[in-house]
Specification:
Layout: H1 34-40, E1 49-52, E2 60-63, E3 72-73, E4 78-79, E5 82-86, E6 91-94, E7 96-103, E8 106-112, E9 117-120, H2 130-133
Antiparallel strand pairs: 1-6, 2-5, 3-4, 7-8, 8-9
Length: about 140
């Protein structure tokens, strides 16, 4: 029998904060992981795009839910957490997007199937638009 495993990533230790004004909207958003399950299961648009990480000086975190809030959501309940972090100008594949917490005036969060996490659309280049990726729906 095969089991899926997810490696623990040392990126959690490398989290950094900044004292400058944050582009993150702290307003609430209701998020459903159902769409993510569809993306993982291959039931969503598969418009894979390789996009560059922009608008960041150190790293950008890739979150389990499309929000920066460390709250528990979903069924079964899963606490939001940083899965990995991406360096500026690095390239990563994204397969779809979901609306989430507003960052830099943008509410889309791009989903990386490889890492199983979301990056705010504010931090991905123009190759990862709504139109290019498509929403993570069945």
């Amino acid at each position: 029998m095969k089991f899926l495993t997810f490696p623990l990533l040392p990126a959690l230790l490398a989290l950094t904060t900044t004292t400058t004004a944050s582009p993150i909207d702290t307003g609430g958003a209701t998020i459903s992981r159902t769409d993510v399950a569809a993306a993982i299961g291959g039931l969503s648009p598969r418009n894979t795009r390789t996009c560059t990480i922009v608008n960041v000086a150190t790293t950008v975190d890739c979150w389990y839910w499309p929000t920066h809030k460390k709250e528990t959501q979903g069924s079964p309940p899963v606490k939001n957490h940083v899965v990995t972090s991406f360096k500026p100008n690095s390239k990563h594949e994204f397969v779809c997007y979901l609306p989430g917490q507003k960052v830099g005036g943008i509410t889309s969060w791009d989903y990386s199937n490889k890492y199983g996490c979301f990056v705010p659309g504010y931090y991905t280049d123009a190759k990862c638009t709504h139109q290019a990726l498509g929403m993570c729906w069945t």
